[in-house]
Amino acid sequence: MKKILITILVVIIAIFGYNEYKDYKRFHPKTSNYKTSENIDLDYYNKTIVHNYFNAVENLNGYVLMQWSANEIDVKSPENDNKETEYAVNQYREKLAKVKYFEALLKQSKKLKNQGFNNADVQNFELKGLSVEAYNKKLNAEKYKNRLMSSIPKENLNYGGGGNAFVYEVQKLLVKKGYNIPLDGIFKSETRNAIIDFETKHNLFPDGQIDEYTLEALLE
């Protein structure tokens, strides 16, 4: 009988010890804490966001531990549905949402920088709300525009001259606007007349030459 009682006592102690160990493992910082992501941009253009992210993670982890140690509420896997537990769980979810928000921004920034973006590009990307593909397309369009604007001849185009890269690009723009002209890079009557017609329709000085005003209108 004595052995049976001792055995029962040992089993009870073992069960109690196991439950205590399970709770310890469950809420030990190494196993219960939310881990900061390694795939975030620590050089994000807005340093406040980086600070807020780490601060939000610390607040979240502290809240989880405090609710368990002080109120025995497991906010991640609640066992009760009383009002106190419901309130604690809602607070936990709000704190977790804040962490996820900052983390998403920093992850996206690192992803964009892996594609060649810098901090200014990331900021513009976020402000304009474009997809990565659309933003890259916009950047390429701006680069093309800047190259073309810097290539405007300082003197009037020579009529009937040899192949010219600038004239060729202007011809491409005119074709996109609906003009049926050859793409040969040669400044002939077809190209000049198309430019005059375009300038006339857009209330520009119709001299058949490409200046900044005409080129800006063609690029729109």
UniProtKB/TrEMBL annotation:
It holds the Pfam family PG_binding_1. It comes from the Bacteria. InterPro entries: Peptidoglycan-bd-like (IPR002477), PGBD-like_sf (IPR036365), PGBDSf (IPR036366). Residues 166-218 form the Peptidoglycan binding-like domain. This is Peptidoglycan-binding protein. It comes from Neotamlana sargassicola.
